[in-house]
Amino acid sequence: MSSLFSDWLARQTAAPAAVSAPEADKADAAKTTRPARAAKPEKIVLDTQLAAAIDIARSAIAEAAGASVIGEHLGTVAEGTRLVTHYFVCTDPVYRGWRWVAVLARAPRAKKVTVCETALLPGPDALIAPEWVPWEERLEPGDMTPRDTLPKLDRDPNLQPGFQQTEDNSADNIDQIPNFEFGLGRERVLSSDGLSAAASRWEHSEAGGEGEFAARAAGHCGSCGYLMPIAGSLRQKFGVCANAWSPFDGRVVGLESGCGAHSETDVRRPNHDPAEAVVDDYSGELEYQEG
User: Fold this and answer.
1) Any idea what the Cα angle at residue 252 is, between residues 251 and 255, rounded to 5°?
2) Which pLDDT belongs to residue 109?
3) Nearest CA to 202 among 238, 241, 156?
4) Among 36, 81, 116, 197, which lies 20 to 30 A Cα-Cα from 224?
């Protein structure tokens, strides 16, 4: 594989160059004896002979890809002393925005131009594949189907070991820890991080206290007769809606949330009684007046 593409990828996340141990020791010693000075960058001068060798660069690319996919010359970049890269437009519609490159070099005091490497690299507007992300990081809530099964995470920060139920005949040996999150018979239960993450998701959902329904509701879920309490410490902020008319039926809702199906709220009911009949029983004469 061409090293040009590897170099291009490395430049995207460029890190400071590593220093060998002896050089690092010398650098530390220098810091203790004199003030640190900013290193002057090496000045690279564009080699005019290599910069003028556009035809040689184009011919080298044509040998590998064909002359029909090589467009206009975009320019040159001095990569080092007597080392120049030429850039050409790639006219292949499949690689829109990509550029052909050819690296040329020459020996000291030599006039012969040597082709080091050619490659096809993406330009600023090139369409490239996004950075690869492992599937467990790409998976989002709602992506699972009934046939999917997630692998077990042995070190899940959202879980912690649970208490296993054991036979106990001693009346004095009774677990008195008032922690509702420790469920008997389960290998693992929610950790503090898991509880915090769940509470944050629920609170910032449309069924939380900051949702649009809560802002428009006349009564909150905490005072609704359809609210079913949940176990654990989260019962202080959340419950389950059991109202068939509510948009949150069967879902966890915040006690500060609400909707128009609150059990104790009402609306002004229209009067459906028939209007009283009006009978015109006037028997006198009417006098017509103009104006």
Assistant:
1) 130
2) 87
3) 238
4) 197
Rounded to the nearest 5 degrees, what angle is found at the Cα of 222, between the Cα atoms of 219 and 226?
85
Alpha-carbon span 159 to 150, nearest angstrom: 15
Write out the two tokens for 89: 């437009």
Residue 11: per-residue pLDDT: 61
Q: What is the DSSP letter of 13?
A: T
Q: Are 221 and 258 in contact (CB under 8 A)?
A: yes
The mean pLDDT value for 46-74 works out to: 92
The residues near 46 (Cβ < 8 Å, ≥ 6 apart) are: 76, 78, 84
Whole-number pLDDT of residue 19: 37
CA dihedral 18, 19, 24, 28 (to 10 degrees): -60
**Statement: the pTM of the whole predicted model exceeds 0.70:** no
Measured between alpha carbons, how far is 84 from 102 in angstroms, rounded to an integer?
8
Could you tell me if 16 and 39 are in contact, meaning their C-beta atoms sit under 8 angstroms apart?
no
CB 220 within 8 A of CB 203: no
8 A C-beta contact, residue 100 and residue 123:
no
In the three-class reduction of DSSP (H, G, I as helix; E, B as strand; rest coil), residue 184 is classed as strand
- Does residue 89 register a pLDDT over 90? yes
pLDDT, position 225: 87
Work out the pLDDT band at 88, boundaries 50, 70, 90.
Answer: very high
Q: How far apart are the C-alpha atoms of 73 and 104, rounded to whole Å?
A: 15
Between CA 174 and CA 149, with CA 234 as vertex, the angle to 5 degrees is 95
